[in-house]
Amino acid sequence: MSAPTLNHQATGYDARQAYCMAEAAELAYQTPERIEATAAGWGFDRVRHHHSTFSPPFALSDTQAYTMASPTMVVTAFRGTEPAQLRDWLSDTSTPPWPGPARTGLVHHGFAEALRAVFPSVLAAVEELRDDEQTVWFTGHSLGGALAMPAAAWLHFEDPWLSAHGVYTFGQPRTCDRVLAEAYDEALGDRTFRVVNNNDVVAQVPPEPVFHHVRALRYIDSSGRVRESMPVVSGLLDRGRGMTSDPLAPASDGMRDHLVKAYVAALEKNLP
């Protein structure tokens, strides 16, 4: 993995930053040793690992992430999960959502509990490693994206002095209700970019109207071009294709588009 240099001063959507953040999200799936070696090659000389287990109603689960720091940036990347486990999380409808940060709106119970298990460790690492006014960033793929966005929300609404400078998520499922989504858009909408690859079905669940996305979409179309919105017709066709099989089955087109490697490859093609 040889990501281009991350830009701590990036504002708005930046194609190079999106690619770098996708590679950082992909790195979260690797071993601690691989994470540390790769981060060092990217110029991040300090790394903290986060791992916590918890027991939601449906199965014993764990949350994994890492935080890396350079003289200019602190980046936390959350790891995703296997499709079968994600299916269990998204099908749990018996447990009510959690209150959002600062009692703002609601967060999907499974995602909130997964974040709660590891967030104290993440917050401690960010506070420790941000020792020279470095910018703060969050990223994640799949479940990792569903943790990166509320992590940024909790940080902003409850520790605003550490508010994130940028958030990039890839294949993120819907995470919160409309109240929190709108509050998040107002506070962090210009710093957050939710990237969706063509027919990625994970970005279409859990269903509306209970759960919502934040609005800052970047859509990778079928030709691999990054667009600022998903065309209505294309979106309907994608959803139709996703319904032809189990949306979280590894063999489906929607699941292939969800793979983190597919995001990295597409965003690399969009580099300037």
UniProtKB/TrEMBL annotation:
Positions of the Fungal lipase-type domain: 75-208
Entry-linked InterPro entries: AB_hydrolase_fold (IPR029058), Fungal_lipase-type (IPR002921), Sec_MonoDiacylglyc_Lipase (IPR051218)
Pfam families, sorted: Lipase_3
Annotated coiled-coil segments of the chain: none
Source taxon at top rank: Bacteria
EC annotation from Swiss-Prot or TrEMBL: 3.1.1.-
UniProt cross-references to Gene3D superfamilies, sorted A to Z: alpha/beta hydrolase
Protein name per its UniProtKB record: Lipase family protein
Native species: Saccharothrix lopnurensis
